[in-house]
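Sequence only, no structure available. Ideas?
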Amino acid sequence: EEARAGLSLRELKARVREALRREKAPRPWHREVGEKLLRLDLEALPPERRALVERKLKELEELLG
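Reply:
I predicted one. Tokens follow.
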């Protein structure tokens, strides 16, 4: 149908890419937090911030069981 409308393959691909970009759902916040935790280097944090992060992680571990 699109080919009959005179669209080239390049134009059709561009339309598909644009449609996919628009339909992409925003990432859930908890997934972003999990990815940050995976990249986190606790040893590189200042001592007081490291202690705070460790406490929060222990709370989360207890909450999750």
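Residues 9-64 form one domain.
Hope that gets you unstuck.
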